[in-house]
Amino acid sequence: MTTASRPAVEVQNVSKWYGSVVAVNEASFDIYPGVTGILGPNGAGKTTLLSMMCGLVKPSRGSVRVLGEEVQGNIGLYRRIGVMLEHDVLYPFMTGRDFVRLAARLQGMNDEAAVDRAIHAANLEDAQHRPTGTYSRGMRQRIRLAGAIVHEPDVLILDEPLNGTDPRQRVEFADFVARLSTQGKAILISSHILEEVEALADRILLVVSGKLAAAGDFHAIREKLDERPFHVRIGASKQREMAAALVALDSVESVSLDESGSIEVLTRNVAELQRMAPRLAQDIGSRLYRIEPLDDSLESVFSYVVQR
Q1: Which pLDDT tens digit goes with each residue over 31-82?
Q2: Which overall architecture, per CATH, does domain 229-307 show?
Q3: Residue 209 in contact with residue 46, Cβ under 8 Å?
Q4: Which whole-number Å values give the CA distances from 251 to 238, 268, 272, 276, in the listed order?
């Protein structure tokens, strides 16, 4: 069993490239027991990192150690790692119990009690004898997680486990993961949604373009993201007068007029801008048509953080 004094996973100067494409670039970090979130936009290198941690992909350079051992080709170590990849599928004709039993046998186990415990942990006793093809998305995610924990691994790797789930299913899944984390396991969860990671993880690794951009708890990552200014387009009459009024706001860094006559604002406080723009428009007799964030995607936020 892992201990808090020693990392469960050690990633040291790891790079992975496919031909001329660099998927991961000189990443270094440690993972300890508890829940760690790997956050980044699609294509950031999260899945490649997780695949190297569970031995499915060999680093081009650097090393990955799990529970103090090199992970690549270490069959004995694989039995201490549980994996749930984003694109894993279930056989729809197979019952939930049969799926978990198969996962146990693939780990060299023939233990019905272990199958019982995993299904109980997933809260799927009532549905265990139904074909998985009749399961909801949330139930399929939980039975897959039951299969990943049936052998009671010390390290659990979950790639985008909440994709496609509804709010209730996310709460159920979060409760499941929280219960597992109290058992001293190291749990890694990847996501491209900050709020998902906030609800699950104690620590967050921010990955962009294959690089580790930041690491810390949710508040530290949120502060890092909030450093980035936002571009906002405002449509209004009396554009020049409106632009002059907007540039006087403390939260506004710059104002310009684009070719269409719209006002483009660079601000560090979108909420204040949305609150003050109608007041300013009223004061100068301008008609306000729209306030539109131009780069509110995670990709643009993360790219800004990396460029700093």
Answers
A1: 999 999 998 877 889 999 999 999 999 999 999 999 999 998 898 999 999 9
A2: 2-Layer Sandwich (3.30)
A3: no
A4: 21, 6, 7, 11
- Kindly list the strands in the beta sheet with 69-70, ordered across the sheet, starting from the edge strand earlier in the chain: 21-31, 9-18, 61-66, 69-70
Mean pLDDT for 147-162 is: 92
Q: Bridge partners of 16?
A: 24
Assigned architecture for domain 9-225: 3-Layer(aba) Sandwich (3.40)
Judge contact between 259 and 221, C-beta under 8 A: no
Please state, in angstroms and rounded to a whole number, the distance separating the CA atoms of residues 186 and 174: 15
Q: Per the structure block, which two tokens stand in for 241?
A: 């007068």
Who has greater pLDDT, 23 or 197?
A: 23
Cβ atoms < 10 Å from Cβ of 290? 9
Band (pLDDT 50/70/90 cuts) for residue 296 is: very low
Instruction: Give the Å distances, CA to CA, from 164 to 86, 90, 138.
Output: 11, 15, 8
Rounded to the nearest 5°, which phi and psi values hold at 214? -165, 160
Q: Which long-range contacts (CB under 8 A, 24 or more apart) does 19-28 make?
A: 22/210, 23/48, 23/210, 24/48, 24/49, 24/52, 24/59, 24/210, 25/209, 25/210, 25/211, 26/62, 26/211, 27/62, 27/207, 27/210, 27/211, 27/212, 28/62, 28/212
Query: Does residue 263 sit in helix, strand or coil?
Result: strand
Each residue of 193-235: pLDDT tens digit?
A: 767 777 788 898 988 888 888 888 766 666 666 666 778 889 9
- For tokens 């496919």, the residue is 18
Closest to 117 (Cα-Cα) out of 35, 165, 179: 179
Domain boundaries, the chain: 9-225, 229-307
Q: What is the tens place of the pLDDT at every residue in 235-289? A: 999 999 999 999 999 889 899 988 888 999 988 777 788 889 999 999 999 999 8
Q: Residue 212 region, left (φ>0) first, then alpha (ψ -120 to 50), else beta?
A: beta
Residue 50 CB-half CA count within 13 A:
29
pTM of the model as a whole: 0.71
